[in-house]
Amino acid sequence: MKGLIPFASLTISGPGAQTTGALSTSAAQFALFSATGGSAGPASTSDDGDPAVKADAANNRMLVEAPGVYRVSVVLSGTIDAAQDIVLTLAKNGVAISDSVTRQHWTNAVKNTQDLECVINITAADNPGTIATKSDPSTSGFAGSGGFPKMMVPITILINSLAGTPTVTAEYCQFIIERIG
């Protein structure tokens, strides 16, 4: 049955589609979905009737409608060139969400996997008002979508190390968001 749970995803599919990024101790947007091997993954489609979640691989982010409650899942697998503690954090509008953080020690020369699962609440106040969901309805004739939420909130992954500037090679990554309320 279509249209029950609006969702979207971004993926990195490797090996062979490996993407590399240098980290620092300052959290920065995980920007490898727009690189080789990164792409928009499975998603609900426009004919499902609710475009509440959209993948934006070119800008390394997901877009969600406000207000809403969303389940977020991130799984990152890859290697690192020097052993290090890695921190993943979700951000809305570029600002870290304080209770959506995971920290894990990565070891060099082996595959490491880190995940982050959480529920986030997006309020009307989170809406930057600059990312359109769909255009305004026609002013002539019946349109039926005048009350439809028309703006989206960007959700990104922030990544950093606790010390040093290691290089992470992401072999697999899934960033999935589904609307649950």
Commentary on this structure:
- The structure is a single chain.
- This protein has 181 residues and is an all-beta fold.
- The chain is 0% helix and 51% strand.
- It has no helices and twelve strands.
- The chain has strands at 7-13, 19-22, 28-29, 38-40, 53-56, 61-65, 68-80, 84-92, 95-106, 112-122, 152-161, 167-179.
- Strands 1, 2, 4, 7, 10 and 12 form a six-stranded antiparallel sheet that branches.
- A hairpin with a 2-residue loop joins strand 8 (84-92) and strand 9.
- It is globular, with a radius of gyration of 17 Å.
- The two termini are 18 Å apart.
- The relative contact order is 0.33.
- The mean pLDDT is 84.
Oligomer: single chain
Number of helices: 0
Unreliable stretches covering 5 or more consecutive residues: none
Distance between the termini: 18 Å
Produce the secondary structure layout.
Blueprint: E1 7-13, E2 19-22, E3 28-29, E4 38-40, E5 53-56, E6 61-65, E7 68-80, E8 84-92, E9 95-106, E10 112-122, E11 152-161, E12 167-179
Antiparallel strand pairs: 1-4, 1-12, 2-12, 3-11, 5-6, 6-11, 7-10, 7-12, 8-9, 8-11
